[in-house]
Amino acid sequence: MEKIRKHTDLNDYKLSFEVGMEVFEISKKFPKEERYSLTDQIRRSSRSVSGNIAEAWRKRRYPKSFVAKLSDSDGESAETQVWLDYALACNYIEQEEHDKLYDKYEHIMAMLTNMITKPEQWKL
């Protein structure tokens, strides 16, 4: 296992950035009337997942702050799943696309939970 030197080396960061970009691409297809609601919401929450992971990484010397930022990332992941549910219910995305992205967020949340429950493994 190679040493993790920066947040971009973390698997959960890599996956969250990748899926955030996938969400951005699918949201380009949403109707114009959703621009200031669903489109903005899903883009913000999906991008916030990797942003909070980066912040957590820089705060890892302070376990409570580290866990708090990871928890924020976990919450943003769940929020993005809700917006994916809305996009599906509004017929903006197909079931297969929804399920693929939803499952990726489930995987991200599992990795975050592992980090949250073992913060001492990540301390400087």
Q: Report the total helices.
A: 4
| Class derived from helix and strand content | mainly alpha
- Ends apart, CA distance between termini: 17 Å
Helix-strand pattern, N to C? HHHH
Strand content: under 5%
- Rough outline: elongated
CATH-derived topology: de novo design (two linked rop proteins)
Instruction: Please tell me the overall pLDDT.
Output: 96
Number of domains: 1
Helicity, as a percent range: over 70%
What Rg do the Cα atoms give? Answer: 15 Å
Count of beta strands: 0
Q: Major β-sheet, in short?
A: none
CATH class: Mainly Alpha
Indicate the CATH architecture. Up-down Bundle
CATH superfamily: 23S rRNA-intervening sequence
Low-confidence stretches: none
Oligomeric status: single chain
3D structure, described in words:
- It contains four helices and no strands.
- Helix 1 (11-27) packs antiparallel against helix 2 (35-58) and helix 3 runs antiparallel to helix 4.
- It has a single domain, classed as Up-down Bundle (de novo design (two linked rop proteins)), CATH 1.20.1440.
- It starts with 10 loop residues before the first helix and ends in a 7-residue tail after the last helix.
- With 124 residues, it is mostly helical.
Keywords:
elongated, mainly alpha, 73% helix, 124 residues, de novo design (two linked rop proteins)
